[in-house]
Design brief:
about 300 residues; alpha+beta; Jelly Rolls; Protein Transport Mog1p, Chain A; 7-stranded antiparallel β-sheet
Amino acid sequence: MKSIRALVVLILAAASHPVFAADPVFPSGARVGLVPIEGINPAKDFMGFESDDKKIKIGVTEIPPAAFDAVDTAIREGKPTGPGAKPEAFETAAGLGKAYITIDTGKDGDTPIRIYSLIVSGGDKYTGYVIAQVREDASKPPSDEAMRKMLASTTLRKAVPVEEQLGLLPFKIGDLGEFKTVRTLSPRVSILLTDGTEDTTLDGAPYMVIGLIGAGPEKSEDRGRFAQQAAASIPGLRNARITSSEPMRIDGSAGYETRIDAVTGKEDTPVTLVQWLRFGSTTLRIIASSTQEAWPKAFPRFRAVRDGIEGR
């Protein structure tokens, strides 16, 4: 009798504590993650997951929010969504709970593959996208049920930790200039620092865009023209006027500073921008901007960030 009572107590105790599923895994820099099934691990060469034999690959990324809206509207209105299988409503662990999955077949060379595509609503911020390919000759091909279960674990996070974003860049940023928001623009290539939020228009709060643009001119006499052409390509400016453009040393390397006065945004906000180029095997490009009114306070912060950037 005691053993039966003890068993009842254990069952009731277990029932009072929820069973926690495995935590989702987010590839470095991604806001889209999932709980990978056995034998699937984070990939080293792309943003996603893969099997040890590399015959099962799962990529994750973000696409514009309009992508989900387009599919959602087409499904609700009974319109075609494109070639291939029709998307079906799918429940995921993502907070907003809206998702569609498409399951299709294809070939990788002569090898049949099964393809799973999943889009998950991130609201008005972004659409989470997952694409998985399973080759028929994988050493341990998962069942359709197992793939669906894994994709159902897909979830989204609001932001990628700052240190995680910075760790992916090919350069180190030692001083963030007390900017409030840090957001990757292109994984492993460029990053945005701003005093605003993710929704702030760039004609308002001070901001910096830091990234690589490939090799610059080898000859010093060509660098001024290159710098001015790069500055002229900065989008969103109107009535732009270069006020200065001159060579300088940046962290011991040849560089160029170009300053621009312009207006931008719906309100024709007067802004001042500075573009710094640091030449080397690749060219580091820094664009920093603020309203002309805020420029005297913003510029020392811009310079502190610039001077704290080092190669890895």
